[in-house]
Amino acid sequence: MTSSLRIRLLIVAALALLLQGCATTTSQNDALFGQSVRATLASQVANPAAARNTTPVNGIDGRAARAALQRYEHSFGKTDAAPAAATFVPMGVAGPN
Distances from the Cα of 74 to the Cαs of 62, 63, 69, 79, 82, in angstroms? Predict the structure, then answer.
């Protein structure tokens, strides 16, 4: 074999290796990636057409709803004393042995 033929064969082999990097490698698993998550989210919707329902909801009147909301908001009143900094121990922190 002559040296120019060897060089040409090496160039062709190098180009073939470089072109393999451009080939697609998407398998069937990659094509279906995320499909199970989308199916799970879709199965959690009870009524997909609920947003198009414009009929008013029957039930509690405005005064009772406002009173219930005010009682709920006042149930989160401020506490008088904050916990002392010395009593706070983060989880996962080991004490002295």
Answer: 18, 17, 9, 12, 19
The percent helix, strand, coil of the chain (3-state, each to 5) is: 50, 0, 50
Each residue of 48-94: pLDDT tens digit? 888 898 888 788 888 999 999 999 999 988 766 665 555 555 666 55
Amino acid at 87: T
What's the pTM value of the predicted model, to 2 decimals? Answer: 0.30
Rounded to whole angstroms, the Cα distance separating 20 from 25 reads: 10
From CA 61, how far away is CA 69, in angstroms rounded? 12
Looking at residue 23, its amino acid is A
Residues 13-25: tens digit of each pLDDT: 888 888 877 766 6
> Residue 38 has which token pair?
């989308």
Q: Which helix (H) or strand (E) holds 68?
A: helix 62-74
